[in-house]
Amino acid sequence: MISTPSIEEDPLALERQVCFALSIASRSVIGIYRPLLEPMGLTHPQYLVMLALWGRTPLSVKELSAMLVLDPGTLSPLLKRLESIGYLRRARSEADERQLAVTLTPEGAALREQALQIPPAVVAKLGMDLDELRRLHESLTRVIAAADQKKGQP
């Protein structure tokens, strides 16, 4: 008979895996955003693009790609959709025609006011203390940095 180690002893226990916890947390939190973003006509990835642009505009596609840690092939359809609904414009940069500049339209800029309601609504739905969420954000940022540092290493 095979004895099964306890969760505390088993290094392969699903419940102990960081990747599993991050995956479930990500899906759960994005699920909270979905109904909040729906009235704005945004998906969560589109919301991230808009957050970047509300912070600074214009941005090149290359800059947006780096900020969002998305390859241009993934970013392009998001930008096309946001352009088709009238929230942004893409045009060749006047400073460097090789660059595609992304700017907010007046409608996209005005949407920021509505988006100000999203963070407090997410915090309320999570029912977690703001300090706890800040600490979690700091921890996740360290995890991201550590994983990025180890990419490509054996």
Automatic annotation (TrEMBL):
Keyword Transcription regulation: yes
Domain called HTH marR-type: residue spans: 15-145
Location, primary (coarse class): cytoplasm
A cellular component annotation (GO) from this entry: cytoplasm
Single GO BP term: response to stress
Gene Ontology molecular function: any one: DNA-binding transcription factor activity
Keywords per UniProt: Cytoplasm, DNA-binding, Transcription, Transcription regulation
Cell compartment(s), UniProt: Cytoplasm
Top-level taxon in the UniProt lineage: Bacteria
Record flagged with keyword Transcription: yes
Protein name (database record): DNA-binding MarR family transcriptional regulator
